[in-house]
Amino acid sequence: MKQLRRKKASQQLWTPFFAKLWILVFLVEFMKGSLLVSILPVYMGETLGLSAGIIGLAFSLQYFGDNAFRAPAGWIAERLGYRGTMSTALLFTLVAIIMLSALTAPVWLVIACLLLGLGTSPLWPCVMTGTTEMSGPNNNNGAAMGTLEIASMGGTGLGPLVMNFAISHYGHSYSVVFMILIGCSIVLLLVALMLPGTNRSAGKAGPGHNALISADGSFKHKQQVLRGIQETISTLKTKLNVNPLIYPALFLQSFVIGLISPVLTLYARTDLGISPNLYSVLLIAGGGVTVLALIPCGKLVDRLGTKYFLHIGFLLAGITLFFFSTVQTIPLVFASVAIIGLGYALILPAWNTFLAQLIPESERATVWGFFLTLQGSGMVIGPLVSGALWDRAGHTAPFIISGIVMLLMFGCHLVLARNPRRKTVAKA
């Protein structure tokens, strides 16, 4: 009987709606991985001859647009629904890629990167809201979150590989890769137009909804919009009952990734002497362990809860990151990366499921956007800290600090697992 229920829940997960969300995540991350890892650094630096300052500004604005506007994008999605929000935003993405392919002036490239960030900002609030609404009643949040992480990691990993092959195959011409990305943008726009016109929880959208939309479905005046925003903020203050420790935990969870990402390649090549080909194998091995473990871990989270998966995941990743800063032999490097990958496979579906349990139904998209903005800010600040540590404290410092941060996350979660919500004083 239990097996029948689990099979039924698995079948309910792959609805047409969830499949569209999965495609959106995969293609958006494919495009971002292609642009930010393979295309823009070389294209802007070597082909166009732009300074490192201009490239850094462009990348910073992309991250800023993507993270700073997640909460407003979630708020808009709560009112306009998935189709209107995602299709409008992805139109910005299409315009941004056309600008990157056609214009060479630094100011337009910087603006294009900002538009790219704005265009992708509603993705995760919409996806997490839609997934929570669909999978929560079926008790398969963990499996759904793990499946989405596969789409995210798969797109991020495949994007640079495909684009590097295309660039080398076509004689280092960027016209082909930009045409591929424009094609991906058009597919994304078409998929977004097939999403539901309104949120499934639109009827529970809260007091701000009536202040925003009139009887004939058109927007009211600016004053009413502002009133709606104020009422929504007031609603969040009263309904978002979470332990304040959740806010630094959201930041720290991605701060670790921000610490490691910029220096991992440098460390592997300069300090460990790993060749580019072997480094690619190393990344595939670590990512492969994570991807293969995500779905079974997600299903186990649905059956057993999030508590022990997060305890073990944070502790395992923290200790291994310390260990990674001391290893010199290739087999131990591969073992460390595999264990870190396993740790993240334990953390990712469990963490997202844990957050989903704290979010009120009436403002799901808004709160997801708020949470994801806090979480994304770690990815913005992490690289800045990592670079300073690398230059001033030594090449192993980012890994040591990331291990400390993971152990801090373990300590935070020990408290959050016991008291996930604010303590309220009982009225006499």
Salient structural properties:
428 residues; mainly alpha; 81% helix; globular
Report on this model:
There is one protein chain. The protein is built from 16 helices and no strands. It has helices spanning 2-13, 16-47, 52-68, 70-102, 106-120, 123-135, 141-169, 174-193, 207-212, 222-239, 246-271, 276-304, 307-324, 330-356, 364-392, 397-418. Helices cover 81% and strands 0% of the residues. Residues 200-221 have low confidence and may be disordered. Helix 4 (70-102) runs antiparallel to helix 5 (106-120), helix 6 (123-135) crosses helix 15 and helix 11 runs antiparallel to helix 16.
Question: Can you describe this structure in just a few lines?
Answer:
The chain has 428 residues and is mostly helical. The protein contains 16 helices and no strands.
Structural category is mainly alpha
Reported for the largest beta sheet, the result is:
none
Beta-strand segment tally: 0
Question: Mean pLDDT, nearest integer?
Answer: 81
Percent range for β-strand residues: under 5%
Query: Residue share in helices?
Result: over 70%
Please report the distance between the alpha carbons of the first and last residues. 47 Å
Number of helices: 16
Uncertain residue ranges: 200-221
Succession of helices and strands: HHHHHHHHHHHHHHHH
Spatial shape: globular
Rg for CA atoms? 22 Å
